[in-house]
Design goal:
heterodimer, A: about 270 residues, mainly alpha, globular, B: about 140 residues, 4 helices, about 0% strand
Chain lengths: ~270, ~140
Amino acid sequence: MIVTMILVFLTAVVAGAFGGMLGVGGGMVLIPVVTLFLGVPMKVAIGASIVSVIATSSAAQIVYVRRGLTNTRLGMVLELATSLGAILGGLTAVLLEARVLQGLFGALLLWTAWGMHRGRHTDGAHEAGGVLPQRYLDESTGRTVEYGVRRMPLGMGLSFIAGNVSGLLGVGGGSVKVPVMNLLMNVPLKAAIATSNFAIGVTAATSAAIYYGKGFMDPRVAAPTALGILIGAQIGPRVGARLQSHVLRLVFTLLLLAFAVQMFVSAAR
Amino acid sequence: MSTADDRAETDGHAGEASRLPVASAVDERIERLVRRVLTAGLGLSAFLLSTGFIIWAVRGGDMPATVQGPLNAARSLIALDPIGLFSCGLLVLILTPFVRVAGSIVVFLREHDWRFAAVTGLVLVSMGAGLLVGSL
């Protein structure tokens, strides 16, 4: 028991560092590792993951907000969609067959990874105009980046789906929101990661409340996960802000592919 | 909106009706609130969880497979029972975003930013629905 708890803790430290760096909750690293290698049941892993997603998001957000990367108003508008999606996700998780959604989500991730890899990101090429304009300093290039948000209704609709996925699978939903913001809403990658992270705290808290109340939270797994993620998340954003965007994008693409494989394997079982 | 400071000088679509004002003074207050609430929530949660570990490591004994509800968790916390510390630590983590959103509503109301007071108010209602669904 104590050995498993320590291994869960160490996994959580690594997952937290990745999550904070990329604006993903850390669940997509944590869930496969603890279920495949440490023998933790899937539902327990999801419960632990969703609560630790709050920790990752919060710890990273303190750093992002200080750096001025977060578009807080855009984040708040998207939270409306993601929290509603999270409730529906938690409820439909009981009614729908998870493997159908997992398969679809795997396909969506592959498409997204492919789009990112082809370089259809708008880093540096985004336009001014649109709503909720924002400006930040890109530390890797030393340039001030300005942008305005476009296609808000479409972005909200897709964020609802991101919240839904979060509630269903115990991940933050950043893998959906970051490309949506970056590719469709004219938000530069670093701002998209920071803003997605901002909304993830609310999304995860909404579905974590459901998982907590419904008894899907094992303290022997959730407590070391949350604590490990907290420590790991302290490291992630400090490294991420100094990395070049293309390095960040490559790591993100590979992570999306790994997650897609995991989704297909679990859907085919 | 006297404090409004439109930051998009390079905007080529200034006449767009859907354009929302950006008030940097309010945004700074929101960002300060976000930092403080999240730091306090994370700190308290980390303290409760790590104290729980230390007490459990020293005392040993069984650990239940599910967390306790808020009332039982508070009772166990007072008794310094590890399950109470773990449950309360996880509850604090879950409630931290709720506090952040509630605080944002207060800031927007004070600044007469009704539009975003409504947006954050609806977010809190939605989150509250999640809490309700979980406890049913």
